[in-house]
Design a protein that fits this description.
single chain; about 425 residues; alpha/beta; Aspartate Aminotransferase, domain 1; Aspartate Aminotransferase, domain 2; seven-stranded mixed β-sheet; 14 helices; 18 strands; globular; binds pyridoxal-5'-phosphate
Length: about 425
């Protein structure tokens, strides 16, 4: 038995499902997850010594590969100075300035420790600022694992959501309205019925949690207009697409300024750090300046801040040019196979999905038509060819900007062979 399998068995006796976050268990694709021993640049090495090109990148958090020397040095240096004070530090100011400089709509920002916290606090802030209770989210968008966002769509437009998980009280779930992604008319109908009680519309402008699906420009602009007209806030959850889909994140790419933005993953450079920010007047409602309470013992943790700052500082114009070069090399490398086998493919910046469906999906209902069994074969074959991919059709594939052309070509070859194995 492989060391990974031994570890998985041992894990299951002391950790539910053997993992600390469900998708890691490889449920949708079957088989057992490799246990990762270490990362080296763009490779990860498992407990049995197998080496894979890493196209999960810690679910998008890493844009500079594993243990990048500049990031490692910054974290080690911070550790030597003390890991946590629960008091303000200079590096937090620098990171906040760096975020404000990069996120077009963000004037002030608060740091926290996970994307879940960022969206939870942004929603509380939106409710506190507007004095309203309802929030609109979209079917297939993921905003972390807190109660009000763990709801799936009921059938039909403007249906009040049902709890997506046992443990979420109806009273909480009923405050979340769920609309189909890219369906502006559905959102208009919700505003027509509930407009004066809608605190916010939250979405992933480039969704990464139902496969990689972008909001259309008309949809995003329509949401901007509707929320402004109705005194609601527009919240972009850029935890996944932020800093990854474009230098200016999704809001820069589409030229739309949301009122609030949630960040995570890339902003922490692989350490537990996230953030939410936006219009200065709205952020001023947060305690201690305002009445909306939000706090965290390890918020702005010095190690996490050091990693985030060092990572962002590597993301200059040349970096984004290279990321796009890598992306278009992958586009070209896969085009013939996608076409030949009647699949579809979509990429934005450093994230993409191969859809086992002939048309690019526009919403979660489209996504559900993908052939997930073919995806499972695709995933297994990629792993056998040394490419580590997210173990679900409903997750985007992520790559870093530090890949060499040779590594990109290795990945393309593995993807081509995996497509053949899946559909052949
Ligand atoms: C990952 C993710 C979250 C949750 O972040 P965690 O750090 O896992 O809590 C929220 N929103 C989006 C869009 C994400 O991709």
């Amino acid at each position: 038995m492989s060391r990974s399998n031994e570890l998985f068995d041992a894990a299951k006796t002391v950790i539910p499902g053997g993992v600390n976050s469900p998708v890691r268990a490889f449920g949708p694709v079957g088989g057992h997850p490799p246990f990762i021993a270490r990362g080296e640049g763009d490779y990860i090495i498992d407990a049995d010594g197998n080496r894979y090109l890493d196209f999960v990148c810690s679910w998008g958090a890493l844009l500079n590969g594993h243990a990048h020397p500049a990031v490692s040095a910054a974290v080690v240096d911070a550790m030597h100075k003390g890991s946590s004070f629960g008091a303000p530090t200079e590096a937090e100011v620098k990171l906040a300035e760096e975020i404000v400089a990069r996120m077009p709509s963000v004037e002030r920002v608060r740091l926290c420790s996970s994307g879940t916290e960022a969206t939870m606090h942004a929603i509380r802030l939106a409710r506190g600022f507007t004095g309203r209770d309802l929030v609109i989210k979209f079917d297939g968008c993921y905003h972390g694992a807190h109660d009000s966002m763990l709801v799936s769509a009921g059938s039909g437009v403007a249906t009040l959501a049902i709890p997506g998980s046992p443990g979420v009280p109806d009273a909480v779930a009923n405050l979340t309205l769920v609309a189909p992604f890219n369906d502006l008319d559905a959102v208009k109908a919700m505003f027509a019925e509930h407009g004066s009680n809608i605190a916010a519309v939250i979405l992933e402008p480039v969704a990464g949690n139902m496969g990689c699906i972008a909001g259309s420009s008309e949809f995003l602009q329509g949401l901007r207009d509707l929320t402004s007209e109705n005194g609601s806030l527009l919240i972009f959850d850029e935890v996944m697409c932020g800093f990854r889909c474009d230098r200016g994140s999704a809001q820069g790419l589409f030229g739309i300024d949301p009122d609030l933005t949630c960040m995570g993953k890339v902003v922490g450079g692989g350490l537990p750090l996230a953030a939410f920010g936006g219009r200065s007047d709205i952020m001023g409602h947060l305690a201690p300046e305002g009445p909306v309470y939000q706090a965290g013992t390890l918020s702005g943790n010095p190690l996490a801040v050091a990693a985030g700052l060092a990572s962002l500082q590597l993301l200059d114009d040349a970096f984004y040019d290279r990321l796009e070069q890598i992306g278009s090399r992958i586009d070209r490398g896969l085009a013939a196979h996608i076409e030949k086998h009647g699949l579809s493919y979509f990429r934005v910046g450093g994230m993409f999905t191969v859809f086992f469906r002939s048309q690019i999906p526009h919403d979660f209902a489209d996504m559900k038509e993908c052939d997930t069994e073919a995806f499972a074969r695709f995933h297994r074959a990629a792993l056998e060819h040394g490419l580590y991919l997210p173990p679900s059709q409903f997750e985007a594939v992520f790559f870093s900007g530090t890949l060499t052309d040779e590594q990109v070509d290795d990945a393309i070859k593995a993807l081509q062979m995996a497509i053949e194995a899946a559909v052949g």
